[in-house]
């Protein structure tokens, strides 16, 4: 089935369309979930919750923009909701004077595969990982992140800076 047919099938509650949509997008959306939580079981729970929300709110998809992008936003929001409930940002601090990251050796970073880099990102503390993913990968601004996570913009910036510093240390340890 074509994507538009799948969407229409999901709107009608067609289980075969839902299964096919799941089969097409579950790996990508699992990747999104794993970027926010490092535990595979929790990521699977988020994946399930995300697909439930996709299927129950598919009528709100207007056709503007990509369907995959619309879905990705749902999964990011599921992950952020989980992180807020588990209070992983309680240790977030509002620091305006954090030390800037020393420019990483680009040859070292280019030697890392995407999988190796994502594995290092998964090792970050949950709060750092969330802000890093939202800013560097999802493309949210610090203002948007602060609103979504209920933190200040400067806390978002400091968490991102600290995440970069920690990643740099981990990369330096590897090479």
What is the fold's blueprint, element by element?
Elements: H1 3-11, H2 15-36, H3 40-57, H4 67-85, H5 106-111, H6 114-122, H7 126-137, H8 142-149, H9 153-174
Helix pairs in contact: 1-2, 2-3, 2-4, 3-4, 7-9, 8-9
Question: What report would you give on this structure?
Answer:
Keywords: Sigma factor, Transcription, Transcription regulation. With 175 residues, the protein is mainly alpha-helical. It has two domains: 3-86, Rna Polymerase Sigma Factor, Chain: A (Orthogonal Bundle), CATH 1.10.1740; 89-174, Winged helix-like DNA-binding domain superfamily/Winged helix DNA-binding domain (Arc Repressor Mutant, subunit A, Orthogonal Bundle), CATH 1.10.10.10. It has nine helices and no strands. α3 (40-57) packs across α4.
**Helical residue percent band:** over 70%
CATH-assigned fold name of the largest domain: Arc Repressor Mutant, subunit A
Distance from first to last alpha carbon: 47 Å
By DSSP (H or I, 4+ residues per run), the number of helices equals: 9
Strands, count: 0
Give the topology string: H per helix, E per strand: HHHHHHHHH
Category by helix and strand content: mainly alpha
Number of separate domains:
2
Q: For the record, what is the CATH homologous superfamily label of the largest domain?
A: Winged helix-like DNA-binding domain superfamily/Winged helix DNA-binding domain
Strand content: under 5%
Q: What is the gyration radius calculated from CA atoms?
A: 18 Å
């Amino acid at each position: 089935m074509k994507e538009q047919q799948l969407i229409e099938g999901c709107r009608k509650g067609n289980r075969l369309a839902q299964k096919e949509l799941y089969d097409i997008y579950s790996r990508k959306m699992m990747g999104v979930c794993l970027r926010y939580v490092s535990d595979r079981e929790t990521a699977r729970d988020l994946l399930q919750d995300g697909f439930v929300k996709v299927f129950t709110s598919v009528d709100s998809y207007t056709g503007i923009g990509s369907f995959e992008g619309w879905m990705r936003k749902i999964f990011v929001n599921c992950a952020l909701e989980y992180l807020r409930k588990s209070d992983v940002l309680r240790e977030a601090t509002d620091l305006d004077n954090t030390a800037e990251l020393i420019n990483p050796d680009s040859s070292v970073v280019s030697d890392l595969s995407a999988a190796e880099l994502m594995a290092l990102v998964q090792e970050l503390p949950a709060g750092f990982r969330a802000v890093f993913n939202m800013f560097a990968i999802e493309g949210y601004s610090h203002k948007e992140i602060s609103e979504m996570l209920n933190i200040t913009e400067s806390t978002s910036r400091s968490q991102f800076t600290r995440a970069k510093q920690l990643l740099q240390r981990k990369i330096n340890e590897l090479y």
